[in-house]
Design brief:
The protein is α+β, with helices and mostly antiparallel strands and 181 residues long. The chain is built from 4 helices and 7 strands, in the order αβββααβαβββ. Bound molecules: FE2/S2 (inorganic) cluster. Its cofactor is [2Fe-2S] cluster.
Length: 181
Amino acid sequence: MAAAASLLSLLPRPAPSQPCRFSPVHSPSSRRKPSISISISIPHSAAPSSSNPTPVTTEEPPKPQIELEFLGPKAGADGAYPVDKASAVSGEKLLRNIMLDNKIELYAAYGKVMNCGGGGSCGTCIVEIVDGKDLLNERTNTEQRYLKKKPESWRLACQTIVGNKENSGKVVVQRMPQWKT
Ligand code: FES
C-alpha cells in the first residue's frame, strides 16, 4: 500500500495556474442572449392603499353671503318693527325672490292679487333700503320710471340684485314703505 502511494506521487500533476483545456459544452438554451431582470420594491408607506386612499380636494371656497333684515311693515304697540331675517349668496338672487323663498310678505293688498310676477311692469313690489344700498345694483331704467318721484332709498324688489358675487355684508329692508308709520 505504501508502495502504491509512492508511485502515485511520482505521476505529473497540472500546475494550479494552468488553464483548463476543455471547452465548455453549449446546450441550445445556453446560446440565448443573457436576460436581465430587475425587481423594484416599493416601500409599504409609498404604495397606494385601498383602505387609505389619498384624499382628493374638490371643495370650492365658500361664496360671499349677504345677510338681510326685513322690518315691518308696521311698528308694533311698543314702537318697534317686527324683524325677519334671511341670507343669500352674493349676486345670485333678486330681492323679490329672496323674500318669496323665505315667505316674507312683499306685496300690499293690491299687489298681492295684481302684481306682474316680477316682470317690472306693475310697480307694486316697493321696498325701502334702510341700510346696505351699496351692496345692491344701481336702480334700473324700470325703477327710474316707476320711482321717479319717490325717495332715493326706494327700490322695486324685482329689479334689485342682492350682492355682486364678490361683496358681502348686511342689508336692512323696510317692507311696504308706503305704509310706514
Ligand atoms: S313685481 Fe311688478 S314691478 Fe316688481
